[in-house]
Amino acid sequence: MRTLILAALASATALPALAQEVNVYSHRQPELLQPLIDAFTAQTGITVNVAFVDKGMVERLKAEGDRSPADLVMTVDVARLGEVKDAGVTQAVTDEALSVVPEWLRDADNQWFGLTTRARIVYASKDRVADGDVTTYEDLADPKWKGRICTRSFTNDYNVALTAAYLAHHGPEATKTWLEGLKANLAKKPEGGDRDQVKSIWAGECDISLGNTYYMGAMLKDDEQKQWAESVRIVFPTFEGGGTHVNVSGVAMTAAAPNKEAAQQLMDFLVSDEAQAIYAETNNEFPVSDHVKRSELVASWGDFTADSTPLSEISALRPEALKLIEEVNFDG
């Protein structure tokens, strides 16, 4: 009888096991992450909740403080990774699995880690630009391109990062001169996004533009934009004495992280061979892991040598780069 009573009490007071979950604030559209999330949940049973936070992420995390439900932040640019770190809303993560990320693609203090890379390349008209006409970023300021270049706003994060990388290689005076020369070569005032510049090349409004590699994959999947993509080829320019500028999508653990252990598992998964392969196929980006091949489409764009300037250094130079962009009134 005593045994039965104890068993009944144990049954009555037992609490149901809580399902594990990870909460993510993302600058990237949730549908782009869904294949990764599905694979992670299938492997671990952990639920991942993604909130798309396009603007004001730092302000939101600071306002929430220790009560924030967010465990991880996922971003699409080193600038935003730098912003969350500088705001003090992330924490350092030391984990053996994350060592697969090269040192130059992660924060020196382990506050953020790159997950994929994309190159900042030149889209060149197949009809009006010969092979070898542009080989370096420095070339873009050459007067031979006067009236032939299109670009989105240079205060956009991608172009600020490129300018910061130029600054790391050449210093402020040379960078300002380069910006002035590039501005003088514009066919029209900066506007739109990277794909809009390729449309302008297709329409004959300019001959070359700056853009991220993955937009080629996106355009080829779109019935209207496919003809734009087929009118250009990808050129991987380099810095003189360096390589091709790359940026990252990345992840950081928040300072609050209420589900820290599960969040760590997700971070580890995101740099695994399985996840890196999904990234490569789904988003037309380059894996950070040397163990994983590029997708067939991405590989068809050609090989290049990535510039190895640490992205943490580039992130730190962003304020100075933006100041120079504004000094020359690039978008004006």
Question: Describe it for me?
Answer:
The structure is a single chain. Helix content is 40%, strand content 16%. It is built from 14 helices and 10 strands. The protein has helices at residues 2-13, 30-44, 57-64, 78-86, 157-170, 172-184, 194-202, 214-220, 226-229, 260-270, 273-283, 296-299, 311-316, 318-327, and strands at 21-26, 47-52, 72-75, 90-91, 113-125, 149-150, 208-212, 232-235, 246-254, 286-287. Helix 2 packs antiparallel against helix 11 and helix 5 (157-170) packs across helix 14 (318-327). The chain is globular.
CATH topology of the largest domain: D-Maltodextrin-Binding Protein, domain 2
State the end-to-end CA separation: 87 Å
Order of helices and strands: HEHEHEHEEEHHHEHHEEHHEHHH
Distinct helical segment count: 14
Percent range for β-strand residues: 15-25%
Unreliable segments (pLDDT under 50, ≥5 consecutive)? 1-18
Q: In one word, what is the shape?
A: globular
* Gyration radius from CA atoms, angstroms: 23 Å
CATH architectural designation of the largest domain:
3-Layer(aba) Sandwich
- Number of domains as seen in the coordinates: 2
CATH superfamily annotation of the largest domain: Periplasmic binding protein-like II
- Largest sheet report: 10 strands, mixed
Binned, the helix content reads 40-55%
The CATH top-level class label of the largest domain: Alpha Beta
Topology (elements, then pairings):
Layout: H1 2-13, E1 21-26, H2 30-44, E2 47-52, H3 57-64, E3 72-75, H4 78-86, E4 90-91, E5 113-125, E6 149-150, H5 157-170, H6 172-184, H7 194-202, E7 208-212, H8 214-220, H9 226-229, E8 232-235, E9 246-254, H10 260-270, H11 273-283, E10 286-287, H12 296-299, H13 311-316, H14 318-327
Parallel strand pairs: 1-2, 1-3, 6-7
Antiparallel strand pairs: 3-9, 4-9, 5-7, 5-8, 5-9, 5-10
Helix pairs in contact: 2-11, 5-6, 5-14, 6-14
